[in-house]
């Protein structure tokens, strides 16, 4: 599929980005490779978008988002095939992502309709009894949205949906590794009636991203991606709003009274969904010593049963990693951990960009693979004696998105939910649970803002107060 005719701004003679399948290396499509020199043209178009978007009444924004949701749903199969082709997710995982995208767009339509502002109780402040008023939620103006490769459709919808609901214009820079689903989503929005200038797609690499972030006219940069990129954006953005959805290193605590069978199944899924390339993927599983051996045996056996291979096949559980380079980096981190004393329980076979689901134990807490986000199909098991030690280990990471815990004891669960430092604590679920309407984001280092449609929408709008002073005759 060539997407060069899609709603992106192109330059005559511009270079192309070729998008290859992570599984078999075939060419999936190509998009223009814009660089910083394209930015003035992009900005000119986006300025029109700012005016057009703000002029759309809320009912129209909502109708367009609903109609786009309908079109994505109608084209579910094509979207899923495209996600598999460009990102290497398995067909089942891609289908789930498409469903979530439909929901994200519908939720955005609801925000456009309902979340317009509030009455301000001026009379609650002594001396203001003669005043009445309200605040409305106004657009910010121009938002730059930058997205990663791993959920190439729904993470884009999480930026475009709330931004459009709020009456903003967007310059969207999708991942250069997997930009095609994003462009197809923009096509659906335009076919649904969105004025094309409201979303300007800008396909390119790091230099383009940097130049967009630096633009003075941009009111907000909404970024999802890695820490290094987030730090670079924060350094160059200047005075504008930043939303940072960065990485994780998710712990899951397994207590002695858990229901072992569903716990193991949930942890295996949490660790290896999307080949572990998942910001809330389970990375460290801390298991009470009394059930550790039983848990380990079942966990390794279920991991070995996972089908690694062609993501187009419905039977496949784990597809390839995004690039061979990413798989090589994973292999290297595991080799380092093994050299530092870790024990390999299964996996650690690489073939080109495919890396088999890998389970480690006895991993040094100084290893990169313990301390940093692995973002790969690798998980660490560790046993604990005392719950307080497990909480300390869970909280030892510098940054955190989600955590999970398994127990039948509600009091323990609620206490742990308070103690664990994370943006979300999933009880009797692995860290890998997300519903698109809930507030979603990180805790500790690097976390700025929340996604989840209502929360992103509120971040992407600004309150404007109108206050009426009733002149009362003496
Ligand atoms: P990445 O940071 O390498 O790239 C993300 C995007 O940033 C790409 O579009 C890239 O071109 C752009 N970019 C790179 N350098 C830039 C710069 N200096 N200025 C502006 N833009 C720049 O991330 P990735 O490898 O595509 O994605 C994986 C990362 O994303 C992981 O760390 C993962 O945890 C994180 N992630 C977070 C969430 C979340 O919601 N918290 C969701 C998915 C992925």
Automatic annotation (TrEMBL):
It holds the Pfam family Aldedh. Residues 15-466 form the Aldehyde dehydrogenase domain. Keywords: Coiled coil, Oxidoreductase. SUPFAM superfamilies: ALDH-like (SSF53720). Residues 84-111 form a coiled coil. One of its GO terms (molecular function) is lactaldehyde dehydrogenase (NAD+) activity. Belongs to the aldehyde dehydrogenase family. This is Aldehyde dehydrogenase.
């Amino acid at each position: 599929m060539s997407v060069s005719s899609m709603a992106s701004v192109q330059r005559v003679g511009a270079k192309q980005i070729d998008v290859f399948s992570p599984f078999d290396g075939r060419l999936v499509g190509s998009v223009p490779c814009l660089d910083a020199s394209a930015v003035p043209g992009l900005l000119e178009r986006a300025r029109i978008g700012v005016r057009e978007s703000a002029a759309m009444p809320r009912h129209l924004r909502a109708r367009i988002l609903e109609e786009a949701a309908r079109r994505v749903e109608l084209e579910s199969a094509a979207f899923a095939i495209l996600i598999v082709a460009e990102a290497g997710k398995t067909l089942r995982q891609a289908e789930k992502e498409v469903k979530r995208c439909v929901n994200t767009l519908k939720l955005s339509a609801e925000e456009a309709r309902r979340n317009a502002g509030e009455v301000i109780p001026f009379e609650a402040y002594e001396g203001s009894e003669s005043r009445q008023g309200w605040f409305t939620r106004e657009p910010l103006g121009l938002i730059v949205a930058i997205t990663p490769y791993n959920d190439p459709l729904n993470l884009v919808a999480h930026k475009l949906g709330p931004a459009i609901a709020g009456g903003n214009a967007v310059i969207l820079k999708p991942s250069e590794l997997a930009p095609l689903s994003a462009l197809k989503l923009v096509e659906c929005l335009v076919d649904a009636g969105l004025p094309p200038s409201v979303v300007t797609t800008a396909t390119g690499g790091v230099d383009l991203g940097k130049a967009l972030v630096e633009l003075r006219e941009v009111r907000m940069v909404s970024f999802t991606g890695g820490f290094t990129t987030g730090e670079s954006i924060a350094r160059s953005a200047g005075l504008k709003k930043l939303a940072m959805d960065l990485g994780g290193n998710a712990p899951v605590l397994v207590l002695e009274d858990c229901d072992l069978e569903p716990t193991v199944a949930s942890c295996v899924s949490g660790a290896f969904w999307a080949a572990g390339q998942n910001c809330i993927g389970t990375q460290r599983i801390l298991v009470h010593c009394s059930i550790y051996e039983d848990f380990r045996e079942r966990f390794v056996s279920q991991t070995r049963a996972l089908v690694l291979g062609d993501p187009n096949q419905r039977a496949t559980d784990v597809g390839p990693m995004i690039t061979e380079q990413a798989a090589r980096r994973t292999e290297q981190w595991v080799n380092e951990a093994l050299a530092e004393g870790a024990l390999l329980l299964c996996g650690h076979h690489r073939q080109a960009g495919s890396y088999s689901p890998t389970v480690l134990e006895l991993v040094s807490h100084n290893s990169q693979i313990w301390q940093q986000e692995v973002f790969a199909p690798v998980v660490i098991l560790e046993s604990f004696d005392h719950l307080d030690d497990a909480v300390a280990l869970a909280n030892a990471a510098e940054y955190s998105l989600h955590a999970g815990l398994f127990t039948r004891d509600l009091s323990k669960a609620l206490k742990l939910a308070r103690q664990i430092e994370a943006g979300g604590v999933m009880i009797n679920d692995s860290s890998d649970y997300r519903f698109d309407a809930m507030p979603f984001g990180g805790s500790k280092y690097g976390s700025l803002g929340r996604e989840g449609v209502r929360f992103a929408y509120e971040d992407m709008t600004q309150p404007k107060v109108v206050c009426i002073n009733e002149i009362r005759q003496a």
